[in-house]
Amino acid sequence: MPKTIKKIAVLTSGGDSPGMNAAIRSVVRTCAYHNVECVGVYRGYEGLIDGEFEVLDARSVKGIINKGGTFLKSARSKEFRTVEGRKKAYENIVKAEIDGLVVIGGDGSFTGAMIFNQEFDFPVMGIPGTIDNDIVGTSHTLGFDTALNTVVDAIDKIRDTASSHNRLFFVEVMGRDVGHIALNVGIAGGAEEILIPEEDLGLERLVDSLNRSRKSGKSSSIVVVAEGDKIGKNIFELKDYVDENMEGYDVRVSVLGHMQRGGAPSCFDRVLASRMGVKAVESLLEGKSNYMVGLINNIMELTPLENAIKGKTKINLELLRVSDIMST
Ligand code: ATP
């Protein structure tokens, strides 16, 4: 029989994403609903090691559902990667009489949670919080939808200036290993081409496509480039290549950077965060452990952390085809 859970801790770890506050709020309020105590841990695993805990009740999380970032702060903890660090964390958890842990973060944070569970047989539950949407076991990670809206808004603004000057803009968006953001915002922002890590478009095809687009009468062009795209070593080299190999283009680069992680969470992310928090707490209370909660076919499901970490998300081929047709 698993131990009855009377106190649950929640932390945010790794890169922050919009919706993390809404997820903390949901965890805290679901605990309150079930008469379970809830403890917030500051600065991710760092706070677990240093014992930076604060008891949270339903009222402590008022006014945060609409706020970006995470009020518990996030961190990357080197010490938690060591056995000694995790032992310190466990000792603090025992001292504080915590019976279960909800980790809001990405695959690195889940790896840490899984190891912690294996070493101390301690109940853990993951909520996928990352804008990259690169975790298996959920159609949407927390923050992905908000990031898409933020980036599309930026592309719309870049388009205004691009068309006023007949310019070609390379716009770099986040996505070192996956092109989910690039592909979606490329379609939504009317990009002429989308360069992603999963596909090698080839420089020649890019030049052909830009030439075609100019011949067809387009006055400006936007190419969305994921950070980890295959053809350019980086976006500035792409610009140099086009400068050298195509005449008459006024080429500019815009790297959107960390603004993609900020901002108020979208309605979709607030609802998703609320659903994920409820599922995470109630699953722990049912005696489940070592899972990640996720959205599959619009139903909240559990995926073993091991599968969520190991799996690789696939690019949506239908979206690729749509983007090809739209750039005609
Ligand atoms: P993002 O997707 O934004 O990068 P993430 O959760 O993948 O988020 P990481 O920096 O990879 O971010 O991991 C967050 C923290 O999880 C690390 O700083 C570390 O404390 C812990 N962690 C990651 N991998 C391990 C591991 N193998 N063993 C123990 N802890 C780990």
UniProtKB/TrEMBL annotation:
<keyword id="KW-0963">Cytoplasm</keyword>
<comment type="pathway">
    <text>Carbohydrate degradation; glycolysis; D-glyceraldehyde 3-phosphate and glycerone phosphate from D-glucose: step 3/4.</text>
</comment>
<feature type="binding site" description="in other chain">
    <location>
        <begin position="190"/>
        <end position="192"/>
    </location>
    <ligand>
        <name>ADP</name>
    </ligand>
</feature>
<comment type="subunit">
    <text>Homotetramer.</text>
</comment>
<dbReference type="GO" id="GO:0005945">
    <property type="term" value="C:6-phosphofructokinase complex"/>
</dbReference>
<feature type="binding site" description="in other chain">
    <location>
        <begin position="258"/>
        <end position="261"/>
    </location>
    <ligand>
        <name>substrate</name>
    </ligand>
</feature>
<feature type="binding site">
    <location>
        <begin position="76"/>
        <end position="77"/>
    </location>
    <ligand>
        <name>ATP</name>
    </ligand>
</feature>
<feature type="binding site" description="in other chain">
    <location>
        <position position="227"/>
    </location>
    <ligand>
        <name>substrate</name>
    </ligand>
</feature>
<dbReference type="GO" id="GO:0061621">
    <property type="term" value="P:canonical glycolysis"/>
</dbReference>
<keyword id="KW-0479">Metal-binding</keyword>
<dbReference type="InterPro" id="IPR000023">
    <property type="entry name" value="Phosphofructokinase_dom"/>
</dbReference>
<comment type="function">
    <text>Catalyzes the phosphorylation of D-fructose 6-phosphate to fructose 1,6-bisphosphate by ATP, the first committing step of glycolysis.</text>
</comment>
<dbReference type="GO" id="GO:0003872">
    <property type="term" value="F:6-phosphofructokinase activity"/>
</dbReference>
<feature type="active site" description="Proton acceptor">
    <location>
        <position position="132"/>
    </location>
</feature>
<dbReference type="GO" id="GO:0005524">
    <property type="term" value="F:ATP binding"/>
</dbReference>
<keyword id="KW-0418">Kinase</keyword>
<keyword id="KW-0021">Allosteric enzyme</keyword>
<feature type="binding site" description="in other chain">
    <location>
        <begin position="218"/>
        <end position="220"/>
    </location>
    <ligand>
        <name>ADP</name>
    </ligand>
</feature>
<feature type="binding site" description="in other chain">
    <location>
        <begin position="130"/>
        <end position="132"/>
    </location>
    <ligand>
        <name>substrate</name>
    </ligand>
</feature>
<keyword id="KW-0067">ATP-binding</keyword>
<dbReference type="GO" id="GO:0030388">
    <property type="term" value="P:fructose 1,6-bisphosphate metabolic process"/>
</dbReference>
<dbReference type="InterPro" id="IPR012003">
    <property type="entry name" value="ATP_PFK_prok-type"/>
</dbReference>
<dbReference type="GO" id="GO:0006002">
    <property type="term" value="P:fructose 6-phosphate metabolic process"/>
</dbReference>
<feature type="binding site">
    <location>
        <position position="15"/>
    </location>
    <ligand>
        <name>ATP</name>
    </ligand>
</feature>
<keyword id="KW-0324">Glycolysis</keyword>
<keyword id="KW-0460">Magnesium</keyword>
<feature type="domain" description="Phosphofructokinase">
    <location>
        <begin position="7"/>
        <end position="283"/>
    </location>
</feature>
<comment type="similarity">
    <text>Belongs to the phosphofructokinase type A (PFKA) family. ATP-dependent PFK group I subfamily. Prokaryotic clade 'B1' sub-subfamily.</text>
</comment>
<dbReference type="InterPro" id="IPR035966">
    <property type="entry name" value="PKF_sf"/>
</dbReference>
<dbReference type="GO" id="GO:0042802">
    <property type="term" value="F:identical protein binding"/>
</dbReference>
<protein>
    <recommendedName>
        <fullName>ATP-dependent 6-phosphofructokinase</fullName>
        <ecNumber>2.7.1.11</ecNumber>
    </recommendedName>
</protein>
<feature type="binding site">
    <location>
        <begin position="106"/>
        <end position="109"/>
    </location>
    <ligand>
        <name>ATP</name>
    </ligand>
</feature>
<dbReference type="GO" id="GO:0070095">
    <property type="term" value="F:fructose-6-phosphate binding"/>
</dbReference>
<dbReference type="GO" id="GO:0016208">
    <property type="term" value="F:AMP binding"/>
</dbReference>
<dbReference type="InterPro" id="IPR015912">
    <property type="entry name" value="Phosphofructokinase_CS"/>
</dbReference>
<feature type="binding site">
    <location>
        <begin position="25"/>
        <end position="29"/>
    </location>
    <ligand>
        <name>ADP</name>
    </ligand>
</feature>
<feature type="binding site">
    <location>
        <position position="107"/>
    </location>
    <ligand>
        <name>Mg(2+)</name>
    </ligand>
</feature>
<feature type="binding site" description="in other chain">
    <location>
        <position position="159"/>
    </location>
    <ligand>
        <name>ADP</name>
    </ligand>
</feature>
<feature type="binding site" description="in other chain">
    <location>
        <begin position="174"/>
        <end position="176"/>
    </location>
    <ligand>
        <name>substrate</name>
    </ligand>
</feature>
<keyword id="KW-0808">Transferase</keyword>
<dbReference type="InterPro" id="IPR022953">
    <property type="entry name" value="ATP_PFK"/>
</dbReference>
<dbReference type="Pfam" id="PF00365">
    <property type="entry name" value="PFK"/>
</dbReference>
